[in-house]
Amino acid sequence: MPFIQLFLMFFRIGIFSFGGGYAMLPLIFQGVQEFGIMTSAEFSRLVALSQVTPGPIAVNAATYVGFQYTGFFGAFAATFGVALPSVILVILTMHFMKKFQESKGLEAVLFGIRPATVGLIASAVIFLSENSLFQGPLFSKELIENIKEYVNLLPCILFICTIILAGKFRIGPIKLTILAGLVGAFLIR
């Protein structure tokens, strides 16, 4: 029975998430909380692990969650569940592409989906910030009152450096991920 629950949870996530893996993260976290599989800190580590392993972040996260919950078959059920909607939607899209290529209705739907996708990605950024840069919920009175005790300085510096190196110097994400991992490994020991 847990395999069916995992499959259905990730199928739902796969079919209702637009915008890729980062847009799926809040939904995956919500599902993980429903199952009671892992804490916020563990989920934050899962996201980091999903980033450094090859493949789409949503598939990596689903595989990890499924494996944590029920082992190999849970990993298979979760991965199949999150990937199947994309396969179905691509097949259907290709079938109807020519018919609806210049449809005003389709343009209107996509116009509405785009800002929601940005919102979901922003939600993932806030979630990851809470668990990576700060030691508790973002936007709380505690943050303002106890800023020195609340902010993790090293992750904030890494965050700012990553933005500068990626934006200004166009250093690729793989190099930045490896560099950040090395900095963390040497400075946090």
Pick out its properties:
189 residues, mainly alpha, 2 domains, 10 helices, CHR_Transporter
Structure description:
Keywords: Cell membrane, Membrane, Transmembrane, Transmembrane helix. It is found in: Cell membrane. Pfam families: Chromate_transp. The chain crosses the membrane at residues 6-25, 73-96, 108-129, 149-167. This protein is mainly alpha-helical. The chain has two domains: 2-103, no CATH class; 152-187. The chain has helices at residues 2-16, 21-35, 40-52, 57-70, 72-96, 104-132, 141-145, 147-150, 153-167, 173-187. Helix 1 (2-16) packs antiparallel against helix 4 and helix 3 (40-52) crosses helix 4 (57-70). The protein starts with a helix and ends with a helix. The model has no long low-confidence stretch (mean pLDDT 80).
Largest sheet: none
- Terminal CA distance reads 42 Å
Could you say which overall geometry the principal axes of the C-alpha atoms support? Answer: globular
Number of domains: 2
| SSE class | mainly alpha
Question: How many helical stretches?
Answer: 10
Given as residue ranges, the uncertain stretches (5+ residues, pLDDT < 50) are none
Strand tally = 0
User: How much strand content do the residues show?
Assistant: under 5%
**Rg to the nearest angstrom?**
19 Å
The helix/strand series, from N terminus to C terminus, equals: HHHHHHHHHH
Overall mean confidence score, pLDDT: 80
Helix fraction bin: over 70%
Family: Belongs to the chromate ion transporter (CHR) (TC 2.A.51) family.
GO molecular function: chromate transmembrane transporter activity
Protein name: Chromate transporter
Subcellular location: Cell membrane
